[in-house]
């Protein structure tokens, strides 16, 4: 009798009581992603997702250029969203001379993070 009750209870617990797998926190919408120029003003706990435009030598000639600071920030917010991040730290832009006499542009870099 005890065996008849124990077997279904064991199977129920085995298949029905399993905890769901942990999920990654959802990425924030681009307009809600906060950008910090340094790490000092950002929340203390975060996980680095990716450093943008500084990981290889190709970034010297292959990183995107932006016409304005607002355009650069929006692009970084979109990158953060696509990579699952919810913030950008160490964000900085540097004015570069225009190519072939064109107007100066901004070259920017930063670190996409997931605040914990």
Give a verbal description of the structure:
The chain is of the alpha+beta class. The protein has one domain (28-115): 2-Layer Sandwich (Translation Initiation Factor IF3). The chain has three helices and five strands; from the N terminus they run αββαβαββ. Strands 1, 2, 3, 4 and 5 form a five-stranded mixed sheet that branches. A hairpin with an 8-residue loop joins strand 4 (87-96) and strand 5 (105-115). The longest helix has 15 residues, at 2-16. Mean pLDDT is 77; it is low at 10-22.
Q: Examine the coordinates and then state which fold CATH places here, giving the name of the CATH topology.
A: Translation Initiation Factor IF3
Order of helices and strands: HEEHEHEE
What overall form do the CA principal axes indicate?
Answer: elongated
Give the N-terminus to C-terminus distance in angstroms: 50 Å
* CATH class group: Alpha Beta
Name the helicity range: 25-40%
Relative strand content? 25-35%
Query: Roughly what is the average pLDDT, rounded to an integer?
Result: 77
- Helices, by number, come to 3
Structural class: alpha+beta
Overall number of domains: 1
């Amino acid at each position: 009798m005890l065996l008849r009750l124990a077997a279904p209870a064991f199977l129920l617990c085995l298949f029905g009581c399993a905890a769901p797998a942990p999920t990654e926190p959802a990425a924030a919408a681009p307009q809600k992603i906060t950008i910090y120029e340094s790490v000092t003003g950002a929340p203390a706990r975060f996980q680095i997702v990716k450093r943008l435009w500084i990981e290889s030598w190709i970034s010297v000639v292959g990183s995107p250029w932006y016409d304005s600071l607002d355009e650069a920030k929006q692009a970084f917010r979109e990158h953060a969203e696509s990579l699952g991040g919810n913030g950008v730290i160490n964000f900085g832009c540097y004015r570069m001379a225009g190519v072939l006499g064109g107007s100066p542009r901004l070259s920017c870099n930063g670190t996409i993070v997931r605040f914990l």
